[in-house]
Amino acid sequence: MKQFACFGLDTANQCLLHNGGRVDLPPKPFAVLRYLVENPGRLITHDELLDALWPETYVQPQVLRTYVLELRKLLGDDAGQPRFIQTLPKRGYRFMAGVTDQQDAAAEIRDQEARDELIVGRDDELSFLRTQLRQLAGGQRRVVFVTGEAGIGKTALVDAFCRPLRSSNETRLARGQCLQGIGGKEEYYPVMEALCQLCAGPDGDAACRVLGNRAPAWLALGRDPGAANAPLMRFAPQERTLGDLCGALEELAAEKPLVLVFEDLHWADNATLDLVSALARRRAPAQLLIVATCCALHGAMSDALKGLAQDLVMRRLCVERPLEPLRKIAVNAWLSRELKQETLPTGLAEFVYRRSEGNPLFMNAVMAHLVAQGVLARAGVNGTAHWEQREPYPEMDAGVPDQLARMIDLEIERLSEEEQRLLEAASLMSVAFPAWAVAAALERDAVETEEACDALARRLHFVVRAGLDEMPDGTTSAFYVFAHGLYREVLYRRQAGARRARRHIRIAERLAQLFAGREADVAREIALHFEAAGDHDRAAKALEAAARPAQQAGVC
Fold first, then answer.
1. pTM over 0.70
2. Residue 484 DSSP SS3
3. Would you call 526 helix, strand, or coil by DSSP?
4. Longest C-alpha distance within the chain, in Å?
5. Rg of the chain on CA atoms, in Å
6. Which residue segments constitute the domains of the chain, with CATH numbers given?
7. Which end of the chain, N or C, is surrounded by fewer C-beta atoms within 10 Å?
8. Per-residue pLDDT tens for 125-165?
9. CA-CA-CA-CA torsion for 96, 101, 106, 110, nearest 10 degrees?
């Protein structure tokens, strides 16, 4: 079946369909339409069409015009502004509408579903979650925090874990999404979403019955008569107690395993965190598994969540499963899956790996950028179609893909102006930056700046304290790293050129002060800062000063 717009060309039954209804079409006009539909987008000359439909028979070209006019009437097409058949005077015709093969479309859907079933590079993590589920049979409830930086694949992992559970009658599944900005305004937002799913799921009647008996204030008060199994959730705000809800969930988890998933728990309201805490600490046997995704436990999360997570881990009431960046072999497998070809363009896997550092979200953005810039293009047709490299890969410092830059910039804009200034100054160094350099760039007190950087590292997932540097005078200064180099690039480029230049000069001058008498040790670094500021004379003098001792030693 060939599908175009609201029409279908049933080649097996030799008929045309319009919105599913059959349209009478004589054999020859059908043959003309079929040939055009099977060759969309290209010029079909009069001679080609005549040879294809009337081989070894002389037919006047005027016949084609008659058939095309008939087809236009049936299709509701306009020769002046054609949607389907375009006439190219004295040459032939072109079929303009997009054509899909329903069998191919179905196969494409099946292929996509099969790809979705696979999650590249996370076999161990997926196996871990499945093991946690199997161990519920002993009645021991479990809490798992899946942690990692933004875009690392937390949701993809949970999706892969939950997918077979959605169609299983042996497990109940409910998911709630925490939303930024909602947590401080609406208590239990993700809990409500999860309860809605329980009541609307395959066991919705049983869930409503248990909630009605054990926690009536949490129960949906009615059902939407227009939607089967879809409760109209009108939760009463009065007399809702955690004990009632915990009891109801435990009763549901006694009948069969219950999996509760809360995504982005770092945006949850305190009431939702209290529920997680209560469910984790209660001692009654329950086949209950709570899976919560959030940023790394040392990074950007509320004090309430951090305290809860650390306390539960210490008491062995939960486990953290951190997601690391994908390794190069997993990036290679991901590219093969996405491009649907085993043999990749030379150097592609290495470029994507280095540019994304194994972050799946960044990998997607880098690939979209390469396609949009024409670096990668599809060649061949049908069964021979494949992706190939058409342009050189961009330099590693050629900028951040637009989509990714907007995402990172939006994340930075949520910070205070003071925090943004600290991060912009930090980006003047490299992926690793010391607190003294940030203080020098901003002309701030070094101790206060280090305290501010520590506070940032505790709050943000993309800044991590990495250790201490010993200074030439014997003092120490903390240094930090950006979890991903692309954050550093966005922060660097968002600064005005003049402001960035002043800050580079301050860092260079502070370096010279710190290493007075030993400038040659850091001359190259000093020169790089002067050069970045556009002060090429001072950059050259720094390099000359570094070379002078070596020259003198050579003369001796």
1. no
2. coil
3. helix
4. 102
5. 32
6. 2-102 (1.10.10.10), 118-322 (3.40.50.300), 329-389 (no CATH)
7. C
8. 999 999 999 999 888 899 999 998 888 999 999 999 999 99
9. -80
